[in-house]
Amino acid sequence: MMSAVTPEDACKAIHDALVAKPLRTSPAQVPFKDGLYFFFEESEVSEHGPNGRIVRVGNHPRSQGGLVNRLRMHYSGNKNSSVFRKFLGGALLRKANPNDPCLLPAAGKGHWEKQDAKTCSCCGPTEARVSDLLRQRFAFRCVWIPDKNERNELEALLVATLATCALCQPSSSWLGQHAYSEKVRASGLWNSQYVGDPTINQLTLGRFLKLAAASP
Ligand SMILES: [Zn+2]
Ligand SMILES: [Zn+2]
Predict the structure, then answer these.
(1) What sign does the CA torsion over 85, 88, 92, 98 have?
(2) Is-contact 71 206, C-beta < 8 A?
(3) How far apart are CA 190 and CA 204, in angstroms?
(4) Which ligand is nearest to the CA of 118?
(5) What is the pTM of this model?
(6) Which of the ligands is closest to the CA of residue 167?
(7) Which residues fall inside 5 Å of ion ligand 2, going by CB?
(8) Coarse DSSP helix, strand, coil percentages of the chain, rounded to the nearest 5 percent
(9) How far apart are CA 70 and CA 197, in angstroms?
């Protein structure tokens, strides 16, 4: 029997568990190789995250031992190595000019937002802006989860749960309001995969809270 927990109660418990963990600003600070990361963003607060709401959950789903490298791809990689960077850069470009040629012919279809399409001389400098943005306005916390299957399962459930919480909403000035993905705009997370999927149950939430508490 799986006992029920509302997404709101789970969202509060997830935020409370993470607040106790060190807030990091560089991949080099992470003392373990496998886990989930949770990004926080300047000025983004909510009912369950009064000092910072979670704005992205991420994983390294295929590569065991790849947590630090995955974070480096976000901080120092390029838009084709990180969907997070693609979202951030696309939102920066769209906020400045909704008709930016690098975003045309349609949201998600322009060469900046299309996977593996090359940047041009106009949007190339956006890579440096995304790197600066991450360093200036974002920080993250990590939870050590060595088992790959457990990590992948928790990633999906945590994204879905945080996205479903009715009490935590993005601010009206959140950069993600300019993201091409409707799921990003609606969820308030820089995530699209797993948004709208089933939320966490009491048993699995308890397991996550245990992992978070044990995390260095
Ligand atoms: Zn371009
Ligand atoms: Zn919440």
Answers:
(1) positive
(2) no
(3) 23
(4) 1
(5) 0.97
(6) 2
(7) 11, 48, 165, 167-168
(8) 45, 10, 45
(9) 24
